[in-house]
Amino acid sequence: MTADHNKDVVRRFITEVLSGGRLDRVDELLAPSYVNRAFGVDLPAFKGMLAGLATALPERRVDVEELIAEGNAVVARFTLELRDPDGKTISVRGLTYFRLADGRIVEDDPITTPELTRELGPLIAPALT
Q: What 3-state DSSP class applies to 71?
């Protein structure tokens, strides 16, 4: 796949799945061997985490500021705003390294401001058990 195609896959994952809540797109964009390094989860656990995230944080907005690609690697720079049902807002900036194979994401290695992991951990923990 070309670098531009890989950037398109990552952009769609961020906008359609993470921001838009389109969980029906996960299997199209993520490979069966997918791993998320930050949360230490595979594809089935990540799907559960996404479902829990959608319930805990129904309002999500991710603004992609930049995508840089070379070969099968894409790095995304973004801002993320999450709002819980009570109106509490979590805002962070982040970078994520994505590795792709055969047009799908196989590795997702996010580096975000510490607030994200600290705030999300308790919210998604039930989905990981």
A: coil
DSSP notation for 1-42: --HHHHHHHHHHIIIIIIIT--GGGHHHHEEEEEEETTTTEE
50: Cα separation from own chain's centroid: 9
Query: Which pLDDT band holds residue 120 (cuts at 50, 70, 90)?
Result: low
Beta strand 59-70 pairing with 89-101 = unpaired
CA distance 124 to 129: 9
CA distance 32 to 76: 22
**8 A C-beta contact, residue 110 and residue 49:** no
Neighbours of 63 (CB within 10 A): 13
pLDDT band at 128 (very low <50, low <70, confident <90, very high): very low
Q: Name the burial class of residue 87, with classes exposed (0-12), middle (13-18) and buried (19+) by CB atoms within 10 angstroms of its CB.
A: exposed
> What is the three-class DSSP state of 49?
helix
Q: What is the pTM of this model?
A: 0.85
